[in-house]
Amino acid sequence: MSTTRGRTTLAAVGQDQHDDTSAPLGAAAHHGGKKSPRRDGETPLRDLLGDHVLDLLLERSRDGAGGLRLTGQGSMLGELVKAVLERALEAELSAHLGYGKHEVAGHGSGNSRNGRIGKTVQTGVGPVRLSVPRDRAGTFEPILVPKRAGRVSGGLDDMIISLYAHGMSVRDIQHHLRQIYEVELSHEAISNITDAVLEEVRTWQARPLETVYPVVFLDAIVVKVRDNHSVQAKPAYLAVGIDADGDKHVLGIWLAKTPLDTATAGESARFWTSVMNDLKNRGVRDILIACTDGLNGFEDAIHHAFPHTIVQACVVHLIRNALRPVARRDRATLAAELKKIYTAPSEQAAFDALADFTASTWGQRYPQAARVFETAWDRFTPFFAFSPAVRKLLYTTNSIESLNYQLRKVTKARGHFPGDDAVVKLLWLAIINIEDKRARERAITKEKTGKIKNSPSTARLIEGQRTIGWREALIELDIAYPGRIR
To answer: Which residue of 47, 236, 275, 475 has the fewest C-beta atoms within 10 A of its own C-beta?
Structure first.
């Protein structure tokens, strides 16, 4: 989320060779006028400053009780930030005027330095009081600390976005910044910072997709959104597609435009038609198999957009629905009986197993368990046409449910969202945050072992995650649907 403006300013500092050259900090920043060393070979900051300077900073950072004040106004880090910012502002003014402080070249130039003006800005270590230099013509526009700006990001924006991505509300972020960093930011300021990612979200939502997805999983999480001056429960749908290379990707996030309890709720053919049209507009021309949890109106919409797509009901969801009314003491036994149905070698064998279960004692005691499979039979049986390699792939929507489990941990901390954009923004940030976390874990594992282990703790959750056993599944899908994948 950082910009190039800060880097431009830091470059200007290196160009200002004549400003305060006797100061230890300034001399250290310039490395004696030579090219800065490589980052992995830089001299530690402690060696640059020296023990004497550090002792002085340490002494100035102590409070009345003898403790250290590392952040906040007047703290050690605050003083360091103040020194660096003021140094950078002087360099910016020198670059603007075209000559350094006390240089002869400034005589008769038509513009010169004109004192300083005090200004307090919020930074990542708390409020800092700066002395901002001015020019006599009034044409100097600081880049690092712009006029009328009360905040210098310096990582503060990224911190706020990270806190937001972890599920903290704007009010919680305000309290956190006030308590830890003594930074006062308004509700509007924090919202503006997080809203800065909306353009990235829209770009991601509109990005081109693959032409063909052999398998697409769809699932939803329910969030509370303020709509028409009242808080409504809405489903936020996510689609995860497996491309021809076996990589999984989140294709998009869609929110139903109406609450669930209305006659034209989000789960309708009209809503799913808009989703399918969005996929087609972004380049998708064919989907072989769509695995869902019996979404109302979905089957008609996808067959209208992709006439040859097979809709497969999630077997795990069917099992959950069948066991929902079963007494806890009977669930293990009943689950074992139901397993005979969905692990049958063929559709006919599954039909016979369902008939046997219906006629059994358990089927008589819990007839609704059999009705779950009977109602969804046409959507339940397509995966029987494949070998175990593909059946395992289509057996469940667990790959998307694992993502939704992580996202629910983020959204449950929020009472409600102010609008649909806020929901999509948070879900997108959460997905990016989860992926970054997994990437760091993989990097640590690779550093320790020299190789990446695809364990639950290190594997990519969704973005770019390879599908296990995809090569065998791809061969079988290519035979079953000739000419549609490649």
So the answer is: 47
- Over residues 46-71, the mean pLDDT reads 76
- 237: pLDDT strictly greater than 60: yes
- Predicted pLDDT of residue 269: 76
- Strands 286-292, 126-135: pairing is unpaired
Residue carrying structure tokens 């992580």: 406
Question: What is the reported pLDDT for 2?
Answer: 39
- Locate 23 and state its tokens: 């100061």
**For position 11, what pLDDT does the model report?**
39
Beta bridge partners of 271: none
Q: Can you tell me the mean pLDDT for 450-462?
A: 51
Is 89 within 8 Å of 142 (Cβ atoms)?
yes
Q: Which amino acid would we find at residue 277?
A: N
Q: Alpha carbon of 157 to those of 80, 124, 141: distances in Å?
A: 20, 9, 22
Place of tokens 């900051």: 45
The C-alpha atoms of residue 296 and residue 310 are separated, in whole angstroms, by: 16
Task: For residues 217-240, give the mean pLDDT.
Answer: 86
Q: What 3 state SS string does the chain have? A: CCCCHHHHHHHHHHHCCCCCCCCHHHHHHHHHHCCCCCHHHCCCHHHHHHHHHHHHHHHHCECCCCCECCCCCCCHHHHHHHHHHHHHHHHHHHHHHCCCCCCHHHCCCCCCEEEEEEEEEEECCEEEEEEEEEECCCCCCCCCCCCCCCECCCCHHHHHHHHHHCCCCHHHHHHHHHHHHCCCCCHHHHHHHHHCCHHHHHHHHCCCCCCEEEEEEEEEEEEEEEECCEEEEEEEEEEEEECCCCEEEEEEEEECCCCCCCCCCCCCHHHHHHHHHHHHHCCCCEEEEEEECCCCCHHHHHHHHCCCCEEEECHHHHHHHHHCCCCHHHHHHHHHHHHHHHCCCCHHHHHHHHHHHHHCHHHHHCHHHHHHHHHCHHHHCHHHHCCHHHHHHHCCCHHHHHHHHHHHHHHCCCCCECCHHHHHHHHHHHHHHHHHHHHHHHHHHHHHHCCCCCCCCCCCCCCCEECCCHHHHHHHHHHHCCCCCC
* Contact indicator for 389, 355 with CB cutoff of 8 Å: no
Give the pLDDT confidence score for residue 154 in this predicted structure: 59
- Give the Cα separation of 9 and 11 in Å (integer): 5
